[in-house]
Amino acid sequence: MDFGGPLYCCGFPGRKVYILLFTCSIIKAVHIEMVESLSVQDFLLCFRRFVARKGLPVVIYSGKAKTFVKWQTKLLEMYGRECPTWKFIAPRAPWWRYWWEKLVGSVKSALKNSVARASLTRQELETVLHEIEARINFHPLTYVGTDVNAPAP
Predict the structure, then answer these.
(1) CA nearest to 123, candidates 18, 10, 1, 15
(2) Which parts of the chain are coiled coil (predicted)?
(3) What pLDDT score does 119 carry?
(4) Pairing relationship of beta strands 59-62 and 85-88 according to DSSP bridges
C-alpha cells in the first residue's frame, strides 16, 4: 500500500486529492482509490471500499509514515482478530518495496501520458484512474504461446 500525489482537479481550486494504491504481491494486480485527504477517517472509508470489492487482505506492507501507524491502530479496533497483519518496511530501504514502487511508476507514467497537463474534473480523474487500473491489471497470469498445438499451461 502506498500513496501517490497530490493531484489537482478543476472545480476545486487549491484542493488536493491523493491516490491510494493497493498492490497484490502475488499476481501484481493494482487497485487504485482516490482519497480527499490523508486523514484517518478518509483512509478508513477508502480501505472499507477496497475490502468490499476485493476482500480483506491477510498482510499489508507499507512504509512507516506516521499516518500508516495511526491507521494500523484504527484497523485493529475495526476488525479485531480478523485484522490484517501490518508489516512496515525498513526506513530508507527502497529494495524492500521495489515490487510495488514499479507499479506506482506504471500508474504515474500512464497518468502522465493520458492526462498530461489537462485540467480534469474529479469524476473525469477518477474515471481515468479506473481505466489505468484496468489496463495495468490486463496481463496474462501465465505464458501465452503462439502455437495452437502447444499443451495447456
Answers:
(1) 10
(2) none
(3) 83
(4) parallel
Sheet holding 30-35, edge to edge: 2-8, 16-23, 30-35
Looking at residue 84, the DSSP 8-state letter turns out to be P
Please state the rounded mean pLDDT for residues 53-66: 87
The residues that bridge with 61 in the sheet, in sequence order, are 87
What pLDDT does 67 receive? 77
Cell of 10: 478543476
Alpha-carbon span 107 to 18, nearest angstrom: 13
Is 8 in a helix, a strand, or coil? strand
Q: How far apart are CA 18 and CA 35, in angstroms?
A: 5
Strands 2-8 and 59-62: unpaired
Phi and psi dihedrals of 59, rounded to 5? -135, 140
Give CA separation, 57 vs 16, 18, 44, 61, 99, in Å. 28, 22, 14, 10, 17
pLDDT in tens, 63-96: 777 778 888 888 888 888 898 998 888 776 666 6
Name residues whose C-beta falls within 8 Å of residue 16's C-beta, 6 or more positions apart in sequence.
5, 6, 7, 8, 37
C-alpha cell at 128: 481515468
Residue owning grid cell 504461446 = 145
